[in-house]
Design a protein that fits this description.
- InterPro entries: AlkZ-like.
- This is Winged helix DNA-binding domain-containing protein.
- The strands form five sheets. The chain has a four-stranded antiparallel β-sheet with strand order 12-13-14-15. Strands 1-10-11 form a three-stranded mixed β-sheet. Strands 2-4-3 form a three-stranded antiparallel β-sheet, with helices on both faces.
- Helices cover about 45% and strands about 15% of the residues.
- The chain is globular.
- With about 375 residues, it is of the alpha+beta class.
- It is built from 15 helices and 15 strands.
- The longest helix is centred in the first third of the chain and has 27 residues.
Length: about 375
């Protein structure tokens, strides 16, 4: 069996994830396609991940792609997590993951409505949704609070988990809006605050072109293999949130080729991708929490030493801001209250590595400007660096 060692995996990461300076992109959609999908649970992460890979980073370019051109779109998709993908790839993600997530969201919400005992049902929900979409169509865009003010049904409160320790009273507005967004009937527009804010305005949207689920899953797998391969069956299953049967079916559909990884595990690559990736120049990167280069695999052993994990991950398994050197995670970084970018290394990178890390920190400081960034998922090292 053909073998692809860890060093070759790190070379592939540096080139295919656009992290070496010579391969950086000129557009945000190009970055999204290179890494397949960008984590967007934390609004700041999206911008930081893209700008780290742009030859000329800037928030104006990101906002144009997200809100003017709509060449980037946010979808509740893999692992029931908010991702941003290019508009050209969005129909495949919708069919491969987002539709199933939306269907589950609807079933769960209807159960909560039924358990509340006020007679709220699928018809009531459909009417509330229709009125919400109509308001957006008329106004163009609106925040969640503005929608609640305009649509009386959105001001309804229900009791969830009645009779249990988790019993609580909740408003339905966020659930209805989330469901409409999950189904592609509305989408997130410009936030109410800066680019680090997750308090979005909303605007009406339309459904994505229909595609068979199996066809879409094969396309997602094909793109993942190119960007993250070689990876294991378990890696793809974890990243997509699919079941084992779906994962194996998608790998077979694209004709994935099996290879041997360091340590003896079997990995998979895209068809015809056996050749070695040409090396890139030495590179360093400061990547945000949940960056795709750290979150693309279930097993990150080829890029992360096991004894570094405790400092860089929170208890839920979310990775924080990381410092990279030639495909390895070698430390963490943070922004202090005065705006200073600080970092700590967990591995020796030598003088050349330290100089490049310093240069990346300066580049990050320059385009972030006066914005202050606090990751949603805070890790031990990030907290220590900002203390």
């Amino acid at each position: 069996m053909h073998r692809i060692d860890d060093e070759q995996r790190r070379i592939r990461l540096g080139r295919r994830h656009l992290l070496a300076p010579s391969v950086r992109a000129s557009s945000a959609p190009a970055v999204a396609d290179a890494v397949v999908a960008l984590h967007s649970t934390d609004a700041a992460t999206l911008h930081l991940s893209v700008c780290a890979r742009l030859s000329e980073p800037g928030i104006a370019l990101m906002e144009r792609a997200l809100y003017d051109e709509v060449s980037l779109v946010r979808l509740l998709s893999m692992r029931n997590t908010l991702f941003t993908v290019s508009s050209g790839f969005a129909p495949f993600v919708d069919a491969a993951n987002a539709r199933a997530v939306a269907a589950k969201e609807r079933r769960t919400f209807l159960k909560h409505l039924e358990a509340d005992g006020k007679g709220l049902d699928a018809r009531w929900l459909a009417d509330a949704e229709q009125e919400t979409v109509a308001v957006l169509a008329e106004r163009g865009r609106a925040s969640g609070s503005e929608l609640s003010a305009a649509v009386p049904a959105l001001r309804t409160k229900i009791t969830v988990f009645p009779g249990t320790r988790q019993e609580t009273v909740q408003g339905v507005a966020s659930r209805v809006i989330r469901l409409l967004a999950a189904e592609g009937r509305i989408r997130r527009d410009r936030p109410r605050g800066s680019w680090t804010s997750s308090q979005f305005r909303w605007t009406a949207s339309g459904p994505w072109p229909s595609s068979p689920t199996a066809t879409a899953q094969a396309e997602v797998a094909r793109r993942w293999l190119h960007a993250y391969g070689p990876g294991t069956e378990a890696d793809l299953k974890w990243w997509t949130g699919w079941g084992l049967r779906e994962t194996r079916t998608a790998l077979a559909a694209v004709g994935a080729e099996e290879v041997l990884l360091d340590g003896g595990a079997a990995g998979w690559i895209a068809p015809g991708d056996l050749g070695p990736e040409p090396p890139v120049e030495p590179w360093a990167a400061l990547l945000p929490s949940l960056d795709p280069s750290a979150m693309g695999w279930a097993d990150r052993g080829f890029q992360l030493q096991a004894d570094h994990r405790a400092a860089l991950f929170d208890r839920a398994g979310n990775i924080g801001p990381t410092v990279w050197w030639n495909g390895r995670i070698v430390g963490g970084w943070a922004q202090r209250a005065d705006g200073e970018i600080v970092w700590r290394l967990l591995s020796d990178v030598g003088q050349d590595g330290s100089a490049l890390i310093e240069s990346e920190a300066s580049r990050l400081t320059a385009w972030v400007g006066d914005t202050r960034i606090t990751p949603r998922f805070r890790t031990p090292m990030e907290r220590e660096l900002t203390a």
